[in-house]
Amino acid sequence: MVDLEERISRELLPFVKHPGQYIGGEVNQLVAPGDWEHAVVRVAVVFPDAYTIGMSHLGCQIIYWLVNHTPGACAERVYCPWADAEGLMRRKSIPLFTWDTRQPVSSADVVAVSLQYEMAFTSVLQVLDLAGIPLRSCERDDSHPLVIAGGPQADNPEPMAEFVDLVVLGDGEASMAAIIEAYREMKAAGVPRREMILHMARRFPWIYAPSLYEVTYNDDNTVLGIRPTDPLIPSRIERCQTENFDVAPFPLRPLVPYVEVVHDRFAIEIMRGCPQRCRFCHAGYTKRPIRLRSVDQILNMAEEMYWATGMEELGLLSLSTADYPDLRELADRVNERFASRRVNISVPSLRVDKMLQNIPWMVNQVRKSGLTIAVEAANDDMRAAIRKHVTDGNLLDGVKQAYAAGWKSVKLYFMSGFPGERPEDIDGIVSLSRKVSDTRRELGKGPGNVNASVGWLVPKPYTPFQWAAQPRAEYFHDVRRRMAALVNQNRDRQGAFKRRNGKKNTGPVKIKTHNVERSILEAVFARGDRRLAPVVEHAYKAGARFDGWDECFKFDIWQRAFDACGVDPDFYAHRERPPLEVFPWHHLHGGPTDDYLARQYDDVFVQIGTARPTAAAMMSGM
Description:
Blueprint: H1 4-12, H2 35-38, E1 41-46, H3 51-54, H4 58-68, E2 73-78, H5 83-91, E3 110-114, H6 121-131, E4 146-150, E5 166-168, H7 172-188, H8 193-203, E6 207-208, E7 213-217, E8 223-228, E9 266-269, E10 271-272, H9 282-286, E11 291-292, H10 295-309, E12 313-317, H11 327-338, E13 344-346, H12 352-358, H13 361-365, E14 371-376, H14 380-385, H15 392-405, E15 409-416, H16 423-438, E16 449-456, H17 473-500, E17 509-513, H18 516-526, H19 533-541, H20 555-565, H21 569-573, H22 594-608, H23 615-619
Parallel strand pairs: 1-2, 1-3, 3-4, 4-5, 9-12, 12-13, 14-15, 15-16, 16-17
Antiparallel strand pairs: 5-6, 7-8, 10-11
Helix pairs in contact: 4-7, 6-19, 12-15, 16-17, 19-20
């Protein structure tokens, strides 16, 4: 493999689209030639998606930074090659390589995979397969690296249980540091790979080794129990917590990509956790307790990152930046420091009312390309039911201020499929979008351009909706048609006037919806168990790749995979769970107690004044 770097340069890069995403060597790369060979512990940090997505993921940059600042350890990055590159690599027998210095991924000691999204499961198999690592954990031997998964989907890793050796529950900073030290000790002692899995599971309360747990099932196919097969490993896995968030490892010299990526900015996580606990939000219930970085620390970090990157946008990130307790002070001081340098301040999760009321300077500074607001539900009572603290009043007041400040367009995010959802909730999406558009008329101007994006509810573990049946595809298609008809009615009324004035009738309000079939698959895997592993493997071998990308997603591959494996996806997606059902993640302590979540679920129907739906009702169309 000594000529792998040369082979990539000669046989791969000249023949693929966008070769810049494969070359490595970016500004602030931490690894130099020779570091990998001389390291005691070598870690391949894997983001199972394309480079243009993975380079914007802050979590992987944190792990990359942490490992490469640990004596004796070296981390290199790995992403998924696009279809053209994968085809060439297979035809020419080029193994998957690391981006930094083009090492074979199979030569790593640890393959650390970030599981961010259910539709990335086949991409994990793509990485393993191209690297020459057996897909299933039980087929690996001492010559193979440990495959360790973390991230949001690690909170229910059961659909991937057959493919990973270890799973980290919780934060990555403290867990990765401990794993490196433990691996170093065991490697020096000559501990075989399979024994390392057992030792890690015994040593750390937040490490889960799926192969060391036995799952039994009831006659109705629900889970009966999950028990460890070794008496010295815990029956319940705890979350790893980064206690002192202010001094947690962080990439102060972020990588600067050579090609355009999703978020071309330097970003700081200012707060971990969210006090809102919207009832559909997995992260809001699992990223607890809330931890903060101080204003002084954030400013110091931002200054160093600015000079290290030259980027012109700073992202102040959290699940709910509006709830950062010192937001006004932080905003004023960041503006004072960076406004003269023409650095744009990005606060993607900030509520519109908070932004315009508490940070007046942003009205003049933030780029006016568009304002994004996560409304989620159209009616006040449904928003109260899902604990989304936005009312029509403060929404429209905030939008009016934004129009007055120069904004001309607004993007609204909605969801459909909530338990107890009524026809008026669907109609309200179109109605509220029109009100947001017409609010600009109150200023003596034309209507605002409103783009409403409607996603479909995917019930998640550790939320009150973990018991809920996701409506069937037919329901969501009916919702789509109903909204389209309402939008078209309004356009028809406007069209008569526009045609008389020689103008094209496009309408100021546009509604776009997510892919229904993909959302159904997300629901299957979000609450799935390890019996789904054969489905994932079958779909991968049949060609499923980049399932989160519209141009790549092929639902028929998944339909055939379910049929071939004898698995009914409806059982996982469209079934209302009884209160005492044992979930596949029952042995993983990912959030609040089920008693607490059950009370929250019951309160949804109290807020909207309807009875809790039966499974049959939720599975029917509108």
